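Re: duplicated header lines in exported structure tokens

Our pipeline writes sequence and tokens for each protein into one text file. With two proteins the header for the second block appears twice in some exports. Here is an export where it did not happen, for reference. First protein block:
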Amino acid sequence: VIMGNPPYNAKQQNYNYQNSNRPYPQIDDRIKETYIKAGTAQNQIVVYDMYTRFIRWATERLHDNGILAFVSNNSFLEGQAFDGFRKIIAKEFNQIYVVNLKGNAHASGEERKRQAGNVFNDQIRVGVAIYFLVKIKGQKGCRIYYNEVPDYTTAREKQAYLLENKIEKLKFDHIIP
């Protein structure tokens, strides 16, 4: 099992924040060979986000059996730039479980209201997801299971949702992209 909560600083432009992203040329090459190559979006620079780097790094180390468990930005769920990422993880894993906690403060209007509070008490502006990527040697194909908090859920309500709902008790929808 590999668990992670990668940093949330993908598009950091100013390195004076003393939190600059380190270069990872081998991982970036693998991202280019996998997620970028399978993608169709014109601008895929966000696919080099630290959380996708961390997932690529972890995937390379998992081998035939195992689980990657992450808390990260949820932009991979719907972002056009992440179409290649979604295709590749569906090829590399047999089961994917996603809990979408929403909370994207970059949305506007009614969509912003639906996204509501961020699970980290509004300390970050991106939506958040918890997800489990499972590899099982000998199993073919990928089954994707999705769960999300209701629209308009506050940060405190999202935290309570996580406290009250163990993964084995959550109701997941089996989705087919």
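Second protein block, exported in the same file:
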Amino acid sequence: TNLFQELGEEFCYELCEKNKITSIAYDSLSLCPSIQLPSYWKDSFLTLEARISEYMIELDRVAELLDRNDIKVVALKNSGIARSLYPILGASPMGDLDVLVRRTDFRKAHKILTDHGYIMKFRSPLEEENLDSAEQNGGAEYSVELDSGSHLWFELQWRPVAGRWIRPDQEPSSEELIERSESIDGSKVRLLSPEDNLLQVCLHTAKHTYV
């Protein structure tokens, strides 16, 4: 509270917007009785909450589609945290959805996604947009338009970390992680076991911190 008042509301808002954490800050600051926030803080929170709510609906829809084909889906990183652990969607910003499937299910899952409007498209110009390359590298990215007209990036992975951030011989298999994963009430989406989830999130956070 003291730091917020020392820096000033406008400066703090600009800083939060620049770092894309306005909704998180609002969730905490709104609990402080000594702080009165302008309405644009809440507007930012509600806008983010609506977007993440739509993401969670789509996540459940995809998991249901894949489950009909006996494909288990584990939500990774923010996707899993928002769907199962943290109760306030407006304070759970994310730019995409990330899921893990068994390697043996990867191509089947790809076909189901593309049959339902998903377009394989990588955000990085360094990635090859073909299925063989995607499978070899551990996963693929997809672009899809949601019912509201908004856009979603969706990542389908069979490697939980991949890339230069872990040696392949030290990375647990998707089969092993999915076997230990836990169900989520009212959804076909699954969540990594607590220990696996913590380690995976730590590795992912370390990657972003390093970059």
